[in-house]
Amino acid sequence: MTRSWWGWGNVEDEIRGAELDTLLDRVRALVPGELAGHEPPDVAALGLPEPRVSAPASLAALCSADPGDRAAHAHGKAFRDVVRNLHGDLRHVPDLVARPRDERDVVDLLDWCTREGIAVIAFGGGSSVVGGVEPRCSDDRPVVTVDLGRLNRVLEVDVTSRAARVQAGVFGPHLEEQLAPHDLTLRHFPQSFEFSTLGGWLATRAGGHYATLYTHIDDLVQSIRAVTPIGVSESRRLPGSGAGPSPDRLLLGSEGTLGVITEAWMRLQRRPRWRARTSVRFADHAAAVAATRAVAQSGLNPANCRLLDAAEALIHAGVNAPGGVLVLGFESADHPVRDRLERALELCRDHGGVPSAERGGNGDDGTGGTAGGDAVGDTWRASFLRMPYQRDALARHAMIAETFETACTWDRFDELHHAVTEAARQAMHKVTGTGVVTCRFTHVYPDGPAPYYGIYAPGRWGSTVAQWDDIKAAVSEAIATHGGTITHHHAVGRDHRPWYDRQRPAPFATALTAAKTALDPAGILNPGVLLAAG
Amino acid sequence: MTRSWWGWGNVEDEIRGAELDTLLDRVRALVPGELAGHEPPDVAALGLPEPRVSAPASLAALCSADPGDRAAHAHGKAFRDVVRNLHGDLRHVPDLVARPRDERDVVDLLDWCTREGIAVIAFGGGSSVVGGVEPRCSDDRPVVTVDLGRLNRVLEVDVTSRAARVQAGVFGPHLEEQLAPHDLTLRHFPQSFEFSTLGGWLATRAGGHYATLYTHIDDLVQSIRAVTPIGVSESRRLPGSGAGPSPDRLLLGSEGTLGVITEAWMRLQRRPRWRARTSVRFADHAAAVAATRAVAQSGLNPANCRLLDAAEALIHAGVNAPGGVLVLGFESADHPVRDRLERALELCRDHGGVPSAERGGNGDDGTGGTAGGDAVGDTWRASFLRMPYQRDALARHAMIAETFETACTWDRFDELHHAVTEAARQAMHKVTGTGVVTCRFTHVYPDGPAPYYGIYAPGRWGSTVAQWDDIKAAVSEAIATHGGTITHHHAVGRDHRPWYDRQRPAPFATALTAAKTALDPAGILNPGVLLAAG
């Protein structure tokens, strides 16, 4: 497999041929447009500027100035990144890409960059959609991107406590591969699973597999080890503690601004043995939301609890349900879960939901296949991992296709949802004349949902980034005005800064700035992310 | 009811008469000793020093210089506090006790103290057992203790999201009283429930009712509002967020060093309708620990999962079980939980546990009494709230009676437990010639337990504080050496500082100090707690 430098995932998995035709047909039915295709440029022809810095001899072997490397580390994988890549618009590229072999190398790299005032961007899988790894600094200092991909080992497994010490640069599949012989799993499956790393998940507070309870990677952390410019930080391995403010919680979400995470002790699960799942159709979206809230507040704690609205259900699950579809799944390594599913379905019926007659999963004795049995959910799941590839295919056809997400309390959801979808529609109409907005809940809490929105509009080739930026600004304003968070699990990076700055309490910003300055006196770590570059 | 100035809780609830005789008889059977009683001194006779500061006219009405007030705010409620009170040893008392009526008063008090360089100790219920509210500063600056008891209202209830905006000074029972009409409850019941406040729980990361999942108050927080010397901080109400490091997590556990918490939006529960509980006896403690681990890792998530060791079971539940007793309880507002209890009992039987034939709780139809039905658990629960009063009665009889607690991963528990109990026994033997150490788990996690230890030894009247300090230092060393946390839910205060300083990562200490200096430039907030006084 070959990683795409310009778009999502592997080159071999790009959407082509019949799959592309089907996708374009489906999109044409929703939004009119030309949909002419465009090819990505040749990296060699980009004419990247010469690196402004060269590594000292002791670090030279770790550092690459290869144009392909530099281009592949210049952007994340947001729509605006992919489109700029397609246009060969790489205004900011790292001068060097460094690949440390161990923690000692990370220390040496930070020491060198501190001495020379070189900016350092920690890079895991590079799947940021918020400008988090883009060397877009406010000044013209050189930038070294530190790609942690070589730190990819599970170093220790504690089967008794179900935990493992894992290096930060490991990608999702490789991590699970190393845990499998111990019958353990992290069960953290973000949509980016194949193309993102543990360190990236920790630094950005990634959202994972569980729709309830353990929604963020935060909850799976036992301790974190990170290299800061003033020294190595390692918290004690603990199942819980009340000794002062949590050191780990300061690093979780720090997005490479306070230190470079090199390893972590992570809490693991045994692989689930019992599963039960199905889907529920609704005639009315408000009733579907009420049903989802009842399930979220029931203490049943489904592993999956995704409410797809009508448009999302139609596009990604091929289902016509005016009020949307709730995809429900329970799992356990210890006991049957079918009774929990049935209780959740009772709650859905109370709100007018119509459960599918099909039940996925297996029997209460733990036997039977684990796949199939729920056509709607299965179709949606299959579509889920293809979505970023579809987004890229549409981007090549001048479509604006992107997602954004938030979370809010239940009492505010109706108003926020109305405001956000209206803002999206108006902005799309203004910039493209038409467009579709979809919504699903990726995670739900007893006190509120995390809605995730999709935008599909026919853009103008050469202008789709600017068009998207206008739409994004409008929906971000709506989110901020109506009490949502600017991000539930996509992080802040550089692109969410204006709204993040308003969201976060001013005294906390002061405290965080002071903490940053203490840990990173030269201000080399990911300048411009979370905080204004000092 | 009259609050005791020198000891736990209400004067009317002190242990006297037949209850005292029974307690002393039981203790005499365990540890030999004289057990002569001593009366607390008269506050008026303490001869407290004159206040070193007087409030400006605008704040005078909020401030008390009454000796009873000052004495009652001088110490927390640790054994060493109670004994020092009994001896009239009040070396450090606040100069004034201020009782703000609203947040504006808190702002004005901090402004005044910042201007004058007066130390400020935020005070909730004063149940600290770690010197957290004791005005023991490294210099001789005046101290104003800010008692938040007047900020005791539930200001808003959001029934849809099951959340409430609550003032920080409210005590447990008064909070629940205000939530009851909405059929909601916080269900945070630390042992100190009656005599501690929401703000205190937040500032110290208190441990509550739930043995699993929502163990600390941290998990029940939606947003926090606090007054810092540089301004008011308020986080957005959110069910979950990934926007940078969590602002709330910096205040949780800050113990009054970063700001004075004035209110919070808290996540609530519906009152449980279904309950199931029983107890399980074990012949062998290692097997009991293994069974508890199996339950903790099962995903069954019992609300109660307390493993009492043989001594704890004997003293507090009147049961003879060489390997200890596991008290198990499940609850739900939504669905029957008896099947979960039965599955947990299967896991216990797999490890040689013998479940009681009795089952507490109610039927699967949700009817039936909720009390009784499990004699062992019921006896233990009844004893639970009397324990601090018993401790005081024993302290008056020159007994050393105190608790300490930690948490560690399961793989380290055997070694830590052995080291801690040995250190306790050796230290007790050295200072008193004898003594008993008990252990229970207050909370359990998939990756480790939170063991809670009790110490009972016959002291020498006049020396019991010094004797206890020697024992405490020995067990704290054992905890630190064997990978435990210096506190799972008792906080750090002043007394845990030496071990906390070693536990916390050095770069985090630097960052926290910088954050503190930024928020509290004059260094007035609880100097000496968490960090060295600047």
TrEMBL record, chains A, B:
GO terms for molecular function: alkylglycerone-phosphate synthase activity; FAD binding. The active site is at 452 (proton donor/acceptor). The record marks 306 as: Important for enzyme activity. It holds the Pfam family FAD-oxidase_C. The keyword Cytoplasm does not apply. Signal peptide: none annotated. This is FAD-binding oxidoreductase. Residues 363-373 have a biased composition (Gly residues). One of its GO terms (biological process) is lipid biosynthetic process.
